[in-house]
Amino acid sequence: MRSEAIVGVLEKQYVTKLLEKGKRSDGRNLLDCRPIQIIPNVIKKAEGSAMVKWGDTVILAGVKAQLGTPFPDTPNDGVITVNAEISPISSPTNESGPPGPRAVELARVVDRGIRESKIIPMKDPKLCVIPGKKVWILFIDVYILDDGGNLFDAAALGAMAALANTRLKRVVIDEDLEEVTLLDEKEPLPRKGSVASLTFAKIKDTIVYDPNLLEDRGKDARFSLAITDKGIVCSMQKGESGVFTEEEFVTLLDQSSSLVTPLLEKIEESSQFPEMNEMYHFDF
Amino acid sequence: MTQDKISLLLDDGRRLDGRELHEIRPITMKSSVLDRADGSCYLTWGNNKIICAVYGPRELHPKHLAKPDRAIVRVEYRLATFSVNERKSPAPRRREYELSKLIKESLDSVLFLEKFPNGTIDVYITVLDADGGTRCAALTAASIALADAGIPMKGFITGCAVGKVADKMVVDLSDVEDKDGQGDMPVAMNYNTGEITLLQCDGEFTTDEVKEGLSLAIRAIGEVYKMQKEAVLAKYTQIEESIDDLGEEEE
After folding, report:
1. What total number of domains does chain A contain?
2. How far apart are CA A130 and CA A77, in angstroms?
3. A263/chain B closest Cα distance in angstroms
4. A10 in a domain, yes or no?
5. Does A278 reside within a domain?
6. Across the interface, do A43 and B83 touch by the CB < 8 Å criterion?
7. Residues above pLDDT 70, as percent of chain A
8. Is B55–A49 a contact, with Cβ atoms under 8 angstroms apart?
9. d(CA B59, CA B15)
10. Residues of B in contact with A142 (CB under 8 A)
11. Which residue of B51, B80, B85 is in closest CB contact with A141?
12. What average pLDDT does this structure show over B139-153?
């Protein structure tokens, strides 16, 4: 057996034994969240961006916008797409190369949370510039810089915070609805509310919220759900080979509303547009 | 071209961002910024923002790449999709492959690779916000991250680009000067030994201008090198101070 694999087994034993006594490796209670910091507007070249420090996890999300053709089946909708890069920068075990299944699942779960919450009104004339012809295409790219566990919630928060400070160039349309001109002037991306993700890890018989790195590596099963500021559940994803019971899901759903409130508050705080001299700056 | 020449320099002879011809942009460097990496550096150079992580020396997979007499260095230089004006596809382009190769070859010269046979040293660089001169900034950051990882080195590689704007040789081109100017000439070297490890140019220069550019670049690299040394030492100064504080508390 390779040495990393042995360390993995030992780590899991350690985390499991602690949890049997109701304790976590970082001293938190089972439903405690680690400290979270959102730093909005960090990338000058992006239309919107945010850095999220979630415990030891660090991610950077950026939004780029370009005018393009809508999909044939949704001619009156703007387009939104989420991509996640689990960069080899973020951990010794990540390899370089195109996104693997893990990065694709992460991107798709974050994507569904935002898409299904309908907080970005895709049919708004600001996004659907000329119906059937020209719409804004929003690319949300999430870079994982330091993997300290719970990438799902950190990536979702980063993507949401980046959207909350996204500003698009104003568009002028000619009378024939054919040509568009982009102005330098920018206006905020239309948004109705916000959404946040909650992730739980099940290790043997114990469920914890916001798994740290040890818990994330040792988990048997994962459950993530996205909830809007209206309390609507708009996406869920059960992951890994372990299983949950109906009672467990019911309990987690009951606990979700109190856990999501602080995250939604953080998003609103970070969406206030900062002073010009505080823009495009972040530190570790 | 004539219009470009005029528009890139202001009437008082300064550059569009207010800099003198030979002035470098503000630079910040911080080592040990990442938890998981063996060594890391976050560097800002004007509006450039660069993160670099180093792993190793470590076991190399796949094994057939291993060299029995030394370690290999693998460098991955990437632009974040949102770091440039038009969103870049996440898949690396030819430019990124070429720069990764040049950065690797530059770093090779300052590492004691023979000390780690069969191993690898992996250097991952991502440009998070780009504004001209990223390869020189990336090399500068990579040296700090390598030192931060505790990897034995003969010296640092330090980079700075020079170029030609409005018929004048200028130091540290911004994105606009690079794209609209007459030429760009990135240089990187081991400042202590005078060994130049990277030299490229595109544009039009006379041989005298190339000579002037080299001498300007070396002078600028000297300034950046000083900051690099301070950034690496800063971590140890902090550790020293916290040990001193502990000592005082015990007394």
Report:
1. 1
2. 10
3. 24
4. no
5. no
6. yes
7. 96
8. no
9. 48
10. none
11. B80
12. 97
CB contact set of B187 (below 8 Å; sequence gap of 6+) = B136, B159, B160, B161, B162, B196, B198, B199, B213, B214, B217, B218, B221
CA–CA distances in Å: residue B195 to residues A169, B4, B220:
47, 35, 15
pLDDT tens-place string over residues A177-205: 778 899 999 999 999 999 999 999 999 99
Segment A212-226, tens digit of pLDDT? 999 999 999 999 999
**Beta strand A233-239 with A221-228: parallel, antiparallel or unpaired?**
antiparallel
From the candidates B36, B84, B125, which should be mutated to test the interface with A, based on the most A CB atoms within 10 A? B36
**Does some domain include residue A137?**
yes
Quick one: pLDDT band at residue B250, thresholds 50, 70, 90? low
* In B91-199, alpha helices (H): 94-108, 134-148, 175-180
Residue A152 and residue B133: Cα distance in Å, rounded? 34
Class at the top of the CATH hierarchy for domain B3-250: alpha beta
- Tell me what pLDDT residue A2 has: 61
State pTM to two decimals: 0.93
Question: Given a cut of 60, is residue B5 above it in pLDDT?
Answer: no
Establish if A239 belongs to a structural domain. Answer: yes
Taking Cα atoms as reference points, which of A265, A233, A252, A267 lies closest to residue A30? A252
Q: What is the pLDDT of residues A132-175, one digit of tens each?
A: 999 999 999 999 999 999 999 999 999 999 999 999 999 998 87
Cα–Cα distance between B193 and A109 in angstroms, integer? Answer: 52
Structural domain spans, chain B: 3-250
Q: Which of B34, B84, B124 sits opposite A45 (nearest CB)?
A: B84
Q: Which residues of B touch A99 (CB under 8 A)?
A: 90
Structural domain range at position A84: 32-270
**A269 to chain B, closest Cα gap in Å:** 23
- The closest CB to that of B34, out of A42, A64, A145, belongs to A145
- Over chain A, what is the mean pLDDT? 93
- The CATH number assigned to the domain holding A53 equals 3.30.230.70
**Interface residue B225 vs chain A (CB under 8 A):** no
- Per the CB < 8 Å rule, is A147 touching B36? yes
Residue A211 has pLDDT above 70, yes or no: yes
pLDDT one-digit tens code per residue, B46-99: 999 999 999 999 999 889 999 999 999 999 999 999 999 999 999 999 999 999
Which residues in chain B are closer than 8 Å to A64, comparing Cβ atoms? 81-82, 86-87
Model pLDDT, residue A278: 67
- Look-up of token digits 């089946």: A73
**Residues in chain A within 8 Å Cβ distance of B53:** 88-90
| Mean pLDDT, range B168-192, rounded to an integer | 96
Shortest distance between the Cα of B40 and any Cα of chain A, in A, equals 9
**pLDDT for residue B6:** 54
Whether the CB of A49 is below 8 Å from some CB of chain B: the reply is yes
* Terminal alpha carbon distance of chain A: 36
